[in-house]
Structures are given as structure tokens and as C-alpha cells.
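User: Structure please.
Assistant: Input sequence and predicted structure:
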Amino acid sequence: MERRIDSTITAAAPTSGGADAFLALITQKVAPLVDARICGRQTDRVLSGYAPGGLFTATAYKLPGFFAGYIAFSPAAFWDHGALARLGEAWAKEMGLETEGAALRGQHCAGRTVQAGTRQRWNR
């Protein structure tokens, strides 16, 4: 896995935007293999990620019902000038949900960070 390629949802940089392909790999190859070899079940599937992986996790709504739960730690909400928010709005409209003045369903927590490139160091 190359996190900048596999975790990002848009091609905002030359080597980015492969989240759809990575999600397809998980759902079409990895999950069936796990299910067959260790008796996995859909009710046990939880997708979790941090930073770019959190961004990937937050956008896995594309397959409702495939995962039983999602944990997106500090998703890279800044990616591509807020692509996550734009995708959320588009999804809400597609689902027929009102977005104007809608309440946030979920929680986003972030700590103080110092960014250097793609690395983050958390201050305690």
C-alpha cells in the first residue's frame, strides 16, 4: 500500500487518487479471502484509518452495508482543498438529504499538529 495513492479520493497530485481502486481490492479480493479462510462475517467488518487512511475510511460510504462500522481518526480533511466536504455534500444530495443547516452526524476531533510534508507530529 502506498498511502498517498491508495488513500486519497481525488487526483490532486501526480501520484494520488487511487482510493476507489484500493476499496475495490479490499471488497473484491481481500474480504472474500478472509471470509473463506477464517470465517469472517460482514457483521464483523470494521474499517479504520488515520490521516490519509482516515480520509479513505470516511469515504467508504460508497458501499453501504459492506462494513459494519467505521473509525476515521483525524481524516485528512484538508486534502484537495476540502474534497471530503464536497463529497459529503454530493452524497447527501444523492441520498435526498437536506444539507442546508443540517446537523453534523458524527464527530471530528483533531489535535494540534505541526506539518512537514505529509508527516504529522502530535503535541501532547
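The two ends are 29 Å apart (CA to CA).
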